[in-house]
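#struct-pred

JT: dropping the chains for the assembly here, can someone run the whole complex?
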Amino acid sequence: MNAAANGSTKVGTSSVFALLLVGGLSAAAAAQTAEPLELTLDNIHRADRGVSSVEVAPGGQQAALVMEGEQGRGIYRLQLTEADAPAGRGALVRGGAAGGQAPGFWVRGRSPSWIPSGKAIVFVRDGALWRIGVGSGEPRRLTENMEGLRDPVVGPDGKRVAFYTTESGHQDIWLVDATGSGEPRQLTEAAMPADDPRFEPSWSPDGRSIAYVSNTADYWEDDVYRVDVETGDVQRLTWALMASSTPRWSPSGDRIALMGTAKSGYWYQDLANIWMIDPDTPRSEKVLDMQVWASDHAMRNDVIWSGEGDRVFFPYMQRGDYDLWSVPADGGVASRVTNLGGAMGSFDAPASAHAIYFVREGPKHGDDLYRVQTAGGPAERLTEVAPEWEGLQVPREISYRSFDGLYIQGFLYTPPEVEDGKRCPALVEVHGGGTNSYLRGQNLTEQYLASQGFVVYAINYRGGSGFGRAFQDLAVEDWLHRQAKDPGAAADWLRTLPITTDRVGIYGGSYGGMQSMAAITRTPEKFDAAVPMRGIYSEAKTFYDQDRLGKIFAKTGHGGLPEERPRIYQKTETLARFDRIQVPVLVMHGEEDVRAPFKNHRLAVEKLRQLGKNFEAKSYPGQGHGFSDPDARIDMYSRLQAFMSEHLGGCE
Amino acid sequence: MRAPSRGRSGPARAFGSALLLAAVTLAPLAVAAGQQELRLESVNEGVSFSSIRYAPERPEIAFVSDRTGASRLWIIDETGTNARQVLEDRGEESGPVWAPDGERLAFVRAGEEGTDIWTVGRDGSGLRRVTDDPEREHDLAWSPTGDRIAFLSARNGHQDVYVVDVRSGAVEQLTSETNPPDEYRWRPAWSPDGEHIAYVSNRSSHWQQDLWLVDAGTGESRKVTSKLDVMTSPVWSPDGRHIAFNAVQHHEFWWGDQSDLYRVDVPNLSVHKLEMNTWVSDRNGSIRMAWGPDSESLYFRYQWEGDDNLWRVSKEGGVATKVTYREGTFGNFSVSPDGSSLVYARSRPTRGSELYRVDVDGGQPDRLTRWAPRYTGLEAPQRVSFRARDGKHILGYLYQPPGFDPAGSYPALVQVHGGGNNAYANGFHVLEHLLAHQGFVVLAIEYRGSAGHGRAFQRLSLGEWAAGQGWDAVAAARWLKSRPWSNGRVGIYGGSYGGIMSMAAVTRTSEPFDAVAPFYGIYDWAEAFRHADYLMRFWVIEGHLGFKPGENPDLYGRTASLRHLDRVDRDLPFLIVHGEKDRRSPFQQSVRLREALEARGNPVTFVSYPEERHGIRKPENRLDAYGRLIDFMETHLSGGTDE
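RK: done, full complex below.
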């Protein structure tokens, strides 16, 4: 096979190590009428995306969508004619769009928050806060540009807006009048370090308090606090939990629910507990008793309260499929509300929670808006914004037996050549996130590589989520060690297939970069080429170069800091094992990366050179962990493809 | 005999052929020729596979199938070629076991000569009768030395373990007072050295099942477990050092599809529960786990959210992982002697059971047969959740008529599955497809207490059997009625526990129901307890929090639908169906229901079949019963102009 000019995949832009998880969110302008897009790297990285997020007006009449549509990226408005109906008409239409007209472009910007009346939104544009009415044409500026301004939330009285900025040098909550009169004032003091932009401010229903997450008490801990909006008095609410989602007040304000794990526990981000807090009683936090967990790989989802306050809805991911679940607010048996699977994000609901809206993608369909009536029934797709692609396949879900007898789940993509009886080189994809999973989403990189003549097998190695905590625990304090032998066993299995040649490569980004590099040092004989991207190759040497979230992640994974647990860090170390590498390596990194610090790239290149290994290296100025520049992404995946073609050959 | 199924060649890596098959399924034109219309007769067209057993020495598999009518012994090569019926049609054949050398099979044949053990060569030659006793023999185990066959029989009043000498036919009774005569769940298991037989018995305590070990030479029995309710027959590890079985703690709920895996170490007979991250599903003891050939790991079946898959766990427990990722359900399975493959018969939402082989190194299962009828216009039911009375969401499988138009007007049915603590699950359900083709929307629900959603969900039914559980069916009916396409009429039907649930639903409130068809159910547990077989009585106690009827009359009063008919509208029509020889759900139950409903003035159609036991098995009776069900529902739910 000749290397096509373009290589391909999508690097997300989300905040954690989860980057390669939700593959291409994409959407072409006028998707409904446009021709299906050709699966090229250019299209994958430049085409419009589908829906990114949804914000439903409290009354449920309409939703503000952040998406890329006919008029580019911005905020679009969608009328929701039947949001509060107990049952939607056309609820049984399979796959078709239901619910009325297409979303219309509203305003350029992001992070919309509704004025409770549903007559206007407040949003962020170019580092400032703006407001626009539903009927009025022109947006009005509410603040000057402020550093790191994000996540505005309008208070329940509609008069004030809370938002985060880093003007103070920290992530702090500020308030401004929702009409723009008066200056913004800072409400919290050093709530979070500036490099940790997770979590939104959360208004109490009476508008007197805001609940938020802060590490004021201890740099390593994310506790829940409340601040009195008038007096600025701060009260710490929790001690035991490590928060991983924005706290959400019950409709009556008597409880706060959020996702998190016990501080004594591991980083169970996708297998989190739901915690309940009495907002008037410090140290009242309790794990909500239920038989499943809550998942949030992107750390952008929250729990949603039912209108009556008797239940909470939450996302839960099993074996690569997200669905919405519900549980009594007092705990008990959780039950599943949707039965769609795929990759889901950005859940929201009107105050009644008669319906829940969410963004979802599946293998052959990109991110669009869906709705499920909480009375039951199939979820319906409300938008057709994501573009159609040519030649997508539904990967086969197949497990293989790993080195110790455990079976590991994988998704197998096959190239068209195998239908003609040819054998093709194989690639093992190792997902990012480490403690997350490869999802059954629209993974355009794997789709593309398969279309270019590779058998691609994306594996959910041990230590990932989606298989329960016992499976995740297999890699606790054992990162990149036994865990890194799962890809080699996958390579062995791939070689036994009648559709593969004997050449197998491995690639992955972020934690997948770490896994790729670890695999060729732990099982050097199993691979013929490796492309680790954006990885950490020595936690010990680069720990303190990471942003806060990266540090928390590494600290939990190792059971402590490098100086506290040197033996664990030795065990997970890859750089010191580079002498074992036997295969050609292409290592790539963004030079501004602080999640997987760029220093790792420099150390890796230095060591590979010193050892005289066969390698290539490429770094990208100006690129952080998320590779925001499509040109850089296209170049990176083109190189990946060319490198694999060169060292693995083509189909035979 | 028909032509063998499509073949596979070479060492057959599972994946390659799976790929081919996938290509075939994707091309509708390629299979359209083999398709047929779904019609009432289709309820008798499914092909069954049971007693699947890999041969010891050859790459072939024995099983029982009713493909040619009655249950017959079949052998197929593991590549899917050369399927052959071992014997000419004569009687019903069941439960084959291989001789250790793989040359002969022993099986049970029920025919004019009675029900006895026979042996036959794998090529169909040398058919020999081994036992000749008026009582039925069953559940055979061929000794590792090849000279004897162990079996169970109630010829002396209890189900006991016997051993017959294959050559002489001399029979020796090895155990006594082992199990009640109407208990048919168990199979004896030889130790690999042939010196012991492991078996299950309730002799130490009537309502408890223990694992026992008998010395095949001396007949001396030892009790191995205590405080457990063993749920599957024991399986020896190939090295003879362990015995595995499923069980729950005695007095714990009877988690039929969510039990624990236990290991006994030999010779000290210490009993260990395998601590692991999942449970094990069997079906009333009929599906056992299997050891890997190295005696280090166990394969087992687990049903989650409707799909059965194979799992694997180390004999020490720990993290169990999933071997297959397939939709649908399967019954028993068998591991090849070298441990390289597993075989099972899986039924999928739009396709009846077929035999599949799975490579244990991974990969997609290879389909070995192409025996299930293919129907035109089948669509897999859609999984939907609906909100129950207490806010929980209940899973349902939604079947729609072909060409369903959301702007149209349709009658709907709630299907309530049998088994109670089993599940409807995601297999092929011909009746619901048929009803959908007849114009009904059908919602088959996994009401609380069903398996496949974890023990916490099953626990919701404790103390609520045939009572609070019924509200889930009520919620399903209300949800269906609130659909814009509803014609305003909803019926409910189900067999066995589904009959029980149908009555539980309408005795919560009959308001959302317009027609009810309870098939062979129980409507007063206390009374049924007096007439039912051992397994049902055991199950009744389990479902009533461990109380026997006299011990908690209040609870039994609450769960007796017969006592709550005052909540049923007097105009509500019923179709009651039952087999007259039923001892699982005693026939008398339906007679009582009929009398009580007629006394209230409800219109009742009563149908009974003199020769049927639990369920409806005879093809002509199935045509009659399901034909009546369709007519009954059409009469009461279709037509009319009040929608």
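JT: nice. Residues 311 and 329 of chain A are 4 Å apart (CA to CA). Residues 1-32, 83-99 of chain A have pLDDT under 50 and may be disordered.
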